[in-house]
Amino acid sequence: MKHKIIFYIILTFGFMISSADLQPIRKNTDLKQVISILQILSGYSADNFSPDNQFEKSDLKQVIYLLKVNAGLIQNNEILLVGQNQPYESLSNAISHASDGDIIEIVDTNLTESGITINKSLTIKGMGAENTVVQAHSDPDVATDRVFTILADASVKITGITIRHGKSNKGGGIYNSARLTLENVSVVHNSTIDGINGRVGQDGTNGVNNGDSGEDGDSGEDGSDAGLGAGIYNEGSLIIINSTIGNNRTGSGGHGGYGGDGGYGIKGSSEIESGGDGGNGGDGGNGGKGGDGSGIYNSGSLEIFKSSIVSNSCGNGGNGATGGHAGNAAIGYGSEGSGGYGGDGGNAGNGGDGGQGSIFNSGKMTVRFCIIENNQGAIGGNAIGSGGDAGNGAKGKDSSGGAGDGGYAGTGGAGGCSGIFNSGVMVVNDTDFKNNQGGNAGFGSGDGGNGGEGADAGGSWNDNGEDGGNGGNGANGGNGGAAAISNFGSISITNCSIEMNVSGNGGKGIGNAGNGGTAGKGYGSDGSGGYGGKPGTGGFGGNGAPVILNENYFTAINCTVYNNSAGNGADAIGIGGNGGNGGDGSSGSAGDGENGGSGGNAGHGASIISNSGKIKLVSCQIMNNYGGSGGNSSGSGGNGGDGDEGKESSGFPGNGGQSGAGGNGGSIIFNTSHLVLENCSVNENYGGSGGNADGNGGNGGKGGDAGGSWNNFGEDGRFGGHAGNAGNGGASSFSNSGTLTITVNSLISENLAGSGGIGSGNGGIGGIGGEGYGSEGVGGNGGKGGSGSNGGNGGDELDNTGKLLIDDCTFSQNQVGHGGKGLGKGGEGGKGGEGRDFNGFDGFNGNNGSDGDSGRYVNP
């Protein structure tokens, strides 16, 4: 009787029964009523029903199940098997046949597939990350595509597999723009593409016909940036649970292209009297940036739970290229012809910055119970290109053309942060940062271009010589990369440990400066010589990086910062350029020589924590950390230019340039803005030592000789350049120029400040006095010698030049640093010039260097 009723109901609602199964031919919303009737008749309860149950009462329960599927009460998810001897041999094939909600299981096999695209909601299961591998290629260096692409509107879960050997511009392992969950997954040995080298600039063509100017050289193209997110690139919503993101690497930036040389001008003629100008040199291209986010690049929403971010590395920055040399100008023709202007040398390109962060976040991110360990920061690109030399000006009887300026050398790229780089919003709880290495900066080895020579006066309506062109600066080193955290957004860390991380060092400043150009000579009785060109400055060493860098909002609660090392400042070797010599005044006034350029200063050592934003530390322990040492400077100053002879007046010479200073050592916490400590302990830390200074000051220029007529007095020689001072030691605790508040039972104890550096550079020799003229001639006095280097001061207990608020805290058993020795010798005074009537006096010797002072204690 029951079965007759069942058949009647089924036939009424459009079902037909075959001997094999039941197949629905239409759906009806009243199926729910049918199901209820069938369950009552069969005595079966829906509470314990599932499609996995055995149909022990023959077809009756199967009928109920099929009716529930048709009514939408049960989702009939299919399980698709992938592997050898399985229905699907490739994951892509299984995905194409799957429907939303289906499950794909990879059985007893590893898959080599790339470009797997998922645009539907699926679950993909492996047999454990150690047993199931999905790789783009067997060789990671050969791969040309990523492994997975998750498209928008999909919701995907991947469990129990290893994803490796993918390579792409964005996301070598995974690119996600949808909703993705990774659980028990390893994303390892993936990469992004390198940047492309910039095109070389073409040389400018030379002038062809008389009076033609040379064309400018083309600038070299910049190297392109490398790809982002070697392991994962996420711009959707991503959750990572119990997974490993490791041994992934972003690409390196492309190198800049060389700038083209400028063409030279053609001399004037009877038809076109003016000479052509020299073309400018093209700028060298900048190096491209290394790829950010070696493990994960996130611009969306990201949650990481109980996972490891380990042994990832970002790509290096590309090198900057050389600027093109300028073309020389050509002379004018005839009495009304003007000389052409020399072109400017092209500037060299900068090195590209190294990639930032094993995790790069510009979105919203939460990290809980994770390990961020053994990640390597990228090296900044080197500024190896030199600035182009300038073109010389050309003379003309109507007017002479000016000299061009030498091109500037570039700056080395910054090293990359190895831990977390944040420009978004981030919360980090219960996470360890350990053994991460910040990237070293790129060095600057390119020289500045030399200034062009000023043209001589050509006569007729042109009596005065032109000024020499200016020399370009030598290349500077870049700044190092932070080891643990670089924050430019908002970040809060709680219950975290930051241990044994080492930040990147600054890049060396090796580039020498370009010399100032020699000035042109005057013409005739009223002609005056031009002024010598200004020289460039020798390259500076870059600064070391802190372990934690904050430039916005940062809060740390109950965290430990232990046994970390900040980056050292880099050495400066670059020599200052020589000042240009003044032009001969002929029958008029002589031109002045220019001061010598300064040698490069060394970079400063970094602090463990550097703050230029707002930072609050609550119940934190900062212990046994090491501030970075200042770099050494051996960059000597350039010599001052000589004044030339003039019948109306003699030229003034230039002073010798000062040699570079040693870098200062880093303190433990460096603050230029707002910093608050509550219930914190800062103990057993070590400030960095100041760098040494052993470059010599440049020699003073020689005074111009008297030329007779209205000028019998030789000009005095100029001062020798001072030797730069050694760097100061870093403070034992804080270096504050902002607002610092220390309160609520904080303890500052047993910290040791750094010692000052040694000053051993000698002062430059004073310039020789110019010779007097004739029987009444008086020689110029010699210039005074420059002072020798002073030793650096020892680091203070607390170095404060800002606002300091201290309440309910203790300073105890801290030690200040010793002052460094001042061993520099003062330069000899210049010899007085000869004169028939009276010789000039010899100049005074410079002062010897002094020892630095010991650091100062504070008594809050």
Automatic annotation (TrEMBL):
Q: Which domain of life is it from?
A: Bacteria
For region Disordered, the annotated ranges are 193-227, 262-292, 438-474, 583-602, 631-665, 693-724, 779-799, 813-860
Instruction: List all Acidic residues biased stretches.
Output: 213-224
- Segments of skewed composition (Low complexity): 840-851
Q: Where is the composition biased (Gly residues)?
A: 275-292, 439-457, 631-641, 653-665, 693-707, 779-795, 817-830
Protein name listed in UniProt:
Polymorphic outer membrane protein
Q: What organism is this sequence from? A: Candidatus Magnetoglobus multicellularis str. Araruama
